[in-house]
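Write out the 3D structure for:
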Amino acid sequence: MERMITLVIDSSYLCYQARFTMGAMSYQDTATGVIFGFLSRILHLGMKFQSNDCVFCWDSRSSYRKKKYPWYKEHRHTQERTPEEIEDIKLMHQQMYKLRMEILPTIGFNNNLQQKGIESDDLIAETVKGKGEFLIVSGDSDLLQLLNGNVSMYTPTKKVFWTKQKFIEEYSISPREWVLVKAVGGCRSDGVPPCAPGIGEKTAVKYIAGTLNPTSKAYKKIVETRLTAIARIEAVALPHPRTHPVTLKRNKLRIEALRHVAERYGMNSFAKDSNWSQLISFGKKTYFQELSSRKTFIRKPVKKHFLHFKGVE
């Protein structure tokens, strides 16, 4: 039997999408929009890619990166929110907890990964080190650095499918060099500043690809601040050095368990969708995959390459 592709899910990404589209749903005065939206997306993804082999990666509430780099995602913490937005986010986190600790395990999704101080991106990076074929589901461009022969990426909101070859054609650099682009040009979503003012992603890509004019002001700025960029590689490289190896378990999906969950949260008609029975029937032959312990992102060769590539002494 041909093995199913493993869907490696950026769970926070799907939950935030569900919050914006179905956050107002409730059942018996209990918020259920994120739960319903999340499960709906899992069903859609499973049918689209003909797989129920899902690994759910969850953010920790604490962050090792934030402790080391005070500017990391600082804009998210300083953003002003209304009391309604604060309550909305609180309800979303409550539903995320239920999904991770109760709902998904009850249905039979047994790979719900979370580690203290570690982000979902790091867990995704650690997971795709294993053997097999992986499809990352996320809208986070940082994860493009993980594209490989057996690792692709899909962004549902934009319906964009990335492969290693497509990435090379788009940027004229390898996915592994994407971390250098982030270190040079910064990362707006994570609050990572560029190595120098006025340097953005497009300029950084040209620099790494070797197509930026060496006599331009931008080129000279990057060369002058290269040590700043090198120092930020750890902030953008995946996985974080403190990420522990992960071991995947068997998924044991049961339609009866899904219906029990649906009844509890007022989603009976949703559970009767015939696609659920089809999804759960995929790959009835269970298997066990263990990810061996490997070193995290090798930063020293990246630094050497970064300097040598530009001919800087």
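Confidence is low (pLDDT under 50) at residues 285-313.
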